[in-house]
Request: fold
Amino acid sequence: MVPLHQLRQWARALKQNVIALYLAARDPRVPWYAKLVAGCVAAYALSPIDLIPDFIPVLGYLDDLILVPLGIALAIRLIPPALFQEHRESAAARMAHRPSSRLGALAIVVIWIALALLVLGCAARYVSASYTFGRAVYPFEMLANLFE
Reply:
């Protein structure tokens, strides 16, 4: 079994390579076909939308475990080695000096909790209204009633 520290190093290197590919995709010295592959791989790796959704058992993580590393490997082969090394060093510098804010993280958590409470409140109101009058209330009716 692989030790946890090796997995962390691998994940850090993967993240650094994705940032380096993003930087390479914006560099005019990189050939157009390498820019295209690097941009697509970086966009897919950083995007919250997956080709195969993660909630599908086993298959959901295959695209993250197979497609992203293969795409990174292909993009790295297409970029001249000295140029990619320059972008890798630049990515490492960006990762070392990235700002972190506990207040910003707290704000995001508060927004997610507020949205969850809003959705739960609307769902509870919908359920209680649909059974109060002895007849089913359709979702569009419920939405119209919310804004009256």
